[in-house]
Amino acid sequence: MSGNDFRIEHRYLELPDSFYTRVQPSPLKDAKMVCFNHKLAEQMGFRADSESDWTGVGAGSELLEGMDPVAMKYTGHQFGAYNPELGDGRGLLLWETVGPDGRRWDWHLKGAGMTPYSRFGDGRAVLRSTVREYLCSEAMHGLGIPTTRGLFMVSAKDPVRRESIETAAALVRVAETHIRFGHFEFAAHHEGPEFVKTLLEHVISLHFPHLVNLPDDERYSRWFEEVVERTARTIADWQAVGFCHGVMNSDNMSIIGDTFDYGPFAFLDDFDAGYISNHTDQGGRYAYNRQPQVGFENCRYLATALLPVMEEDDVRRGLRRYEVAYNERFLQNMRDKLGLAIEDKADLSLIMDTFSMMHEHHIDYTAFFRALSNLHSHGHGPVRDLFVDRSVADQWLERYEERLLNESRAHDEREYAMRRVNPKYVLRNYLAQQVIQEAQNGDYEPTKALLKVLERPYDEQPENDAYAALPPDWGKHLNISCSS
Ligand code: AMP
Ligand code: MG
What is stated as this protein's family in its record (predicted)? Predict the structure, then answer.
């Protein structure tokens, strides 16, 4: 671990001590490095000449000088019910570093063993879920969607009981912050207004520095508007790439709008508006088409926690930003995906009809928009091939081609832009499943190969065509367990 060019800080420890408990990680046995994100490390200001130097940190058997691990306390609403017992039950905040570009990074060791907030859990993470989280955070980053990141992960021999016996792993997850909506709920519902204020000032000064010098009331209201807007935009980005989070509890909502806590997530294969990626979510509370509304409900939980320190009118005004920000971003995303640069009043109905058509005919979401991004270079064939009933495709294409007549960009220019927003490669569940099986057999190369492809999801990468293939029969509608 040479060439460190970062500053060590641990500003979370400046919060009142009810916000955390110091906990030492419980070491894992025979840990091996699975993969290490060298590019990210470089951005954070260090180089890992030898990956294995970091295995001990991942295994929880080694702390670097300055690391002072704590389990964070937060609460939150899970499936609509308030749970006061939450907190880092298997993750520890190791320290915070500030890189050469001034960016701040929380280092969080997920799978580090039990903490006072473990409740019935064992404090561990299994290899399957660790690989999924690492892959998906890097896939989202590649797509340009705000997200926590995967710095490195290790795999160990310790058995972990889930639906069956699996093996333990740990992930060093990094993000500008790990503070969640649930931190504010904890402060408001258990500690009192002074704690909410302290947390607010902490978050503003570290993560919203442009607001620091505003007068008190304006600072809080502008901050809340921003949090609401960021949340809405991230979710609009999810909808546009067909991402289902799966567990949108308010303790899984990042205060800076990152996609946070990857569990039973999924990217849609064939489009299904009501798709439920989490098999324990029987009511479909977090189904794909409910995500925008749930994002708003989570902002309302946050709003409630802010009422003791903010004017009610300001809170209401902040909440109203959600719908505006969401609609604006979603419409823009969809216009970009369809390659529509000149605004037309009828575009919204074209977009909605496109979703209905894809839903009704089970059209592969990613493949459809990618094929559309090559419509004039490759012809109608690749789009039509996604339909069982070609006449449906022809009808839709006729309407679309007519709409394109209003556009002024040349076909190749439009399609180039479309390929920058319509990924060829997303983390389809079956792809994750394949590399997980190999990883469970001790071969991490397929995971690394998939990561490399997902780093550049918008590039053609003809040598990697196989990763863009539609799911095989066994890989459709995989049932993803919440137990991670
Ligand atoms: P999640 O569904 O992963 O967002 O976790 C919800 C809550 O359960 C958080 O407080 C986690 O820290 C905790 N938790 C999840 N899995 C475990 C586990 N295996 N051991 C202890 N706590 C856990
Ligand atoms: Mg969580």
Answer: Belongs to the SELO family.
